[in-house]
Specification:
Length: about 375
């Protein structure tokens, strides 16, 4: 075993696999990163970049942030404890600073008219408390994990999770990024903020009234499934992703039995296609995504209800030096077939449409 030493992990002599894995992100960083590094949240510590390098505002991503996520969260500039074998192979790589961050949100919620039998003017302290960890695990594997405290139940549980393998190849004489994502929320792995998991609204009160219905892909399956998807970004112009999700709810009896509700029969296919483009100070991506699932209303046998979600989305960003304007839009159409009952009509449709816009300005 070679002696452990502090080193910049992406500068190790002969470490070609790490260099190749980070090359795309370095190109983006060289073009877009203007701010100096600050030792703040998890990925900022690992990359040595300011939060503003990857985010216009949390959680909206810049081109640098999208490249970092696409490449498996593995780009590194931070000082690490590194060890190598006598043959020069890496045998140890540890962060000198723990890759952990904290998010704390508190809220005061008041409505024009109180709900019957309830107190108006609700204070939540906290409204949300989350711990984040993640980053590079190996030169080709990295991840993101969010653990959140729920003030309603008083319990701590797994929130969003996304673990990736990423590598590079040449396809049709053009550079391509190839990867796998293991995650627990359809679209949480997406690199654009026009899809539901990281889309607007970014935060809301836990006690405010919410819509009575939502499509499957719009958060209904979040933390209730486990999925594996494969993706590729070809020539920074074409993105494709396909995979499947299977029910994996937390906090209930295993294996799933007659007491379970909302269990997917078999696996639910998921798809995503997008076409990004950059010109001047503009970035635009237009795409489509969706999921289809047969769901047992109760138990794990018997008739199922069928839900098919088809969506289109748009993500636009214009940079004004260190300032930016962003617009993210999505339209989701869900076809519902209630073979097992549960609705007044045997077939229904549910549509969701959102187009948030934001202007970021720095002093």
């Amino acid at each position: 075993m070679g002696a452990a030493r502090a080193a910049l992990a992406d500068r190790g002599a002969g470490d070609r696999t790490k260099e190749n894995a980070a090359q795309a992100l370095r190109i983006y960083a060289a073009r877009y990163v203007l701010a100096s590094a600050r030792l703040t949240p998890t990925y900022a510590r690992q990359t040595g970049l300011a939060c503003s390098a990857c985010h216009t505002h949390f959680p909206e991503l810049t081109p640098t942030g999208r490249a970092f996520k696409l490449n498996g969260y593995v780009f590194r500039r931070s000082e690490s404890l590194e060890g190598k074998s006598p043959e020069g192979q890496q045998s140890l790589l540890l962060n000198l600073v723990a890759p952990v961050s904290l998010m704390f949100q508190t809220s005061y919620t008041s409505m024009k008219k109180a709900l019957p039998g309830t107190q108006n003017g609700t204070v939540l302290f906290p409204d949300q408390l989350s711990l984040f960890t993640g980053g590079e695990i190996t030169p080709h594997v990295g991840g993101f994990l969010q653990v959140t405290f729920d003030p309603q139940s008083g319990q701590l549980g797994v929130d969003n999770a996304d673990f990736r393998f990423a590598t590079h190849a040449n396809l049709l004489s053009k550079r391509a990024t190839l990867g796998l994502s293991l995650n627990n929320n359809p679209t949480v792995q997406d690199i654009w903020n026009s899809t539901p998991a990281w889309g607007f609204p970014y935060g809301s009160s836990a006690v405010a009234p919410t819509p009575g219905a939502a499509t499957l892909v719009d958060g209904t399956l979040g933390q209730q499934v486990a999925g594996l998807t494969g993706y590729t970004m070809w020539n920074d112009r074409v993105y494709g992703e396909f995979g499947a999700y299977r029910s994996a709810p937390l906090g209930i009896q295993r294996p799933l039995d007659s007491t379970a509700t909302g269990v997917i029969k078999g696996a639910a296919p998921y798809w995503r296609v997008a076409f990004p483009n950059v010109w001047g100070q503009n970035y635009l991506s237009v795409g489509t995504y969706g999921i289809a699932a047969s769901v047992f209303p109760a138990g794990v046998v018997g008739p199922t209800n069928r839900f098919t979600d088809l969506a289109v989305d748009l993500a636009y960003m214009h940079s004004f030096g260190s300032n930016s304007f962003t617009l993210d839009g999505t339209w989701i159409h869900e076809k519902q077939t209630w073979t097992a009952g549960g609705a007044a009509n045997p077939t229904n449709t549910l549509r969701t449409f959102r187009v948030p816009a934001a202007r970021r300005m720095t002093a």
